[in-house]
Amino acid sequence: MLDLNGFYYMFLPYQSFDDGSLQFGVVCKRTYRIAHGERARADEAQLPLFTADVYWEETEPLLSSLKHEADNVPCKPKTDVVVNARAYAPGGQPVEQMTVAVDVEGVARKEILVVGDRFCTQPGGLTPSFSYPLPFDEMPLRYEYAYGGIDPEAAPGGGLPFPKNPVGTGFALGGPNAGPSVDGMPLPNLEDPRDRLTPERILVPHDRLLETPQPAGFGWYGKGWLPRAAKAGVPRASRALWAEAHDFAGIEARGGEVRELDAEFFNGASPGLVLPLLRGDEWLALHGMDRTGLCRFQLPCEGVRVALDLCKEGLRQVPMRLTTVAVLREEDRLYQCWSGSVSYASNETLWDKGIGKIVIEPVEVAAAPGA
Q1: Which of 209, 119, 115, 126 is nearest to 164 (CA)?
Q2: C-alpha dihedral sign at 56, 58, 62, 66
Q3: Distance (Å, rounded) from C-alpha 355 to C-alpha 350?
Q4: What backbone torsions phi and psi does residue 263 show, to the nearest 5 degrees?
Q5: Which of these, 207, 208, 154, 156, lies nearest to 179 by C-alpha position?
């Protein structure tokens, strides 16, 4: 990992998923300060590129959501917008529920209903009901507080993780494998206001797992969680090779399916915040994530120009795209990543001739109106 003109950068050679061509990938990163009503400006303290996933609970990654997803991905097709934050009751007065939102103005808006602590009650195994929410002053906006989790009694010899969010709360399997009761079960604090959990939905039939509420969040969404995990698969360019090694014909003959890789698998933002490529001059409004109630700011109106003398064949421009906008609300910071690639002839030539001149420098993006 190196830095040049205020950008951390890394090179990541890979093989195209579509045609198998050799691609020389580049990822650049820069960190900015944010303030209400202002354009983001470069921070004196720069975050490095994350070369591995970083979890909120580093000692128990299987029980934790992601704080930062690894940056070393040169082939994201869209822009991830991610917000790590807490919800704050308006005016510091505790509330039973409130709505928070991320608004990429003119592009997308996502809302979450934040509800105080509640429990499911089911005395004597009767029909479940929900307790009234307790007032709260602030609430972490993390997937641990959203719908999901593990039903400890749903599978022999171990629990059944909820496939959309195994670190959440409120998931309980219904039907013949259900536990004796959901009495006292904690309920999610974060919900999609258009798809809420109800007492009628608390016990999930085993064949209707995908009809459950979508876990609510603005943070990074796990690679192994549905629907993201369903986009993983075999690259088109490598299918013939993989088919021989893994007997695809036999798998399909037995009714199995070998999916083709969808490049959007590499986009890790929450559903609703994987967006068409942003320019970098958009305005973002964060509602309910500080004591004032609103933080509205403009992205830095900055891109990055990358040019490489690859294999000593002369300087070539690398088309770069803004692929990550990650807001760290509690720190008043955000970081952005750009990625791109150019093709090259062979690994032998790259190894032999290497890279000559490297140009990495900021370029201005035309600012959109702020009002």
Answers
A1: 209
A2: positive
A3: 8
A4: -60, -20
A5: 154
Tokens 């001149």 belong to which residue? 357
Check residue 155 and give its pLDDT.
67
Tokens of 149: 């989790």
Q: What pairs with residue 161 in β-bridges?
A: 150
Considering just the CA atoms, what is the radius of gyration of the chain in Å?
Answer: 23
CA distance 167 to 241: 36
Mean pLDDT of 252-269: 89
Chain position carrying tokens 């969680």:
225
Sequence-distant contacts of 118-126: CB under 8 A, at least 24 apart: 118/186, 118/187, 119/184, 119/185, 119/186, 119/187, 120/170, 120/182, 120/183, 120/184, 120/185, 120/187, 120/199, 120/202, 121/183, 121/184, 122/181, 122/182, 122/183, 123/183, 125/180, 125/181
Of 46-50, 233-237, 276-280, give the lowest mean pLDDT range.
233-237
Task: Give the separation between CA 318 and CA 306, rounded to whole angstroms.
Answer: 5
Q: In what order do the strands lie in the sheet with 302-310?
A: 315-318, 302-310, 355-364
Per-residue pLDDT of 171-223, as tens digits, reads 998 865 555 568 899 999 999 999 999 999 999 988 888 899 999 999 999 99
| CA–CA separation, 266 and 255 (whole Å) | 27
What pLDDT is recorded for position 76? 96
Q: Which one-letter amino acid corresponds to residue 298?
A: Q
